[in-house]
Amino acid sequence: MAYHIYGIGNALVDKEFEVTDEFFAKTGIEKGMMTLIEEDQLHTMLETLNSDYGLKKRACGGSAANSIIGASYFGAKTYYSCNVGNDEAGDFYISDLTAAGVDTNTETNRDEGTTGNCLVMVTPDAERTMNTYLGITADLHEKHINEEALKNSEWVYIEGYLVTSETSRAAAIKVIQLAKKHGVKTAMTFSDPAMVQFFKDGLKEMIGEGVDLLFCNEQEAMLYSDTDNLDDAIDALKGIAKTFAVTLGSKGALAFDGELMHPVIPNPTTAVDSNGAGDMFAGAFMYAITHGHDFAAAGRLASAASSQVVSQFGPRLNAEQHEPLKAALEA
Question: Which range of residues forms the domain containing residue 219?
Answer without folding.
Answer: 3-9+61-105+139-330
